[in-house]
C-alpha cells in the first residue's frame, strides 16, 4: 500500500521523512475537502431558498461524496501514523 511512499528508501530515517511528507499531503487534502463540503452546503441552502430542489439535491450528493473521500483520507492518515509509530519503535529498539 505504501510502496509509492517508501520507494527508494534505504533506511528508517528516510522512510520516516517520506511518511511525514505523505501525512502533510493528506492533511492538505483533508483541508481542501472540508472547504468543498462547506461550499456545497452553502450552495444547497441557496438553491433551496430559490426553490431549485434538484440543484440542491445535486449539491448534497456531491457533499456526501466529499465526505466519503474525507473518510478515506482519514483512514490513510491513521495508517501513516501507525507506520510512523512502528518505525519510531523500531529505531528505539536498536
UniProtKB/TrEMBL annotation:
GO cellular component assignments: cytoplasmic side of plasma membrane; ESCRT III complex; multivesicular body
InterPro entries: Snf7_fam
GO biological process per UniProt: late endosome to vacuole transport via multivesicular body sorting pathway; vesicle budding from membrane
Record Pfam families: Snf7
PANTHER family tied to this protein: CHARGED MULTIVESICULAR BODY PROTEIN (PTHR22761), OS07G0490700 PROTEIN (PTHR22761:SF91)
Identification of the protein by name: Uncharacterized protein
Native source species: Setaria italica (Foxtail millet)
Amino acid at each position: 500500500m505504501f510502496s509509492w511512499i517508501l520507494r527508494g528508501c534505504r533506511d528508517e530515517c528516510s522512510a520516516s521523512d517520506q511518511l511525514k511528507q505523505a501525512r502533510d499531503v493528506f492533511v492538505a487534502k483533508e483541508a481542501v475537502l472540508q472547504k468543498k463540503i462547506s461550499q456545497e452546503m452553502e450552495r444547497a441552502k441557496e438553491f433551496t431558498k430559490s426553490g431549485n430542489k434538484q440543484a440542491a439535491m445535486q449539491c448534497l450528493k456531491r457533499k456526501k461524496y466529499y465526505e466519503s473521500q474525507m473518510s478515506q483520507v482519514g483512514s490513510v492518515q491513521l495508517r501513516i501514523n501507525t507506520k510512523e509509530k512502528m518505525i519510531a519503535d523500531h529505531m528505539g529498539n536498536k
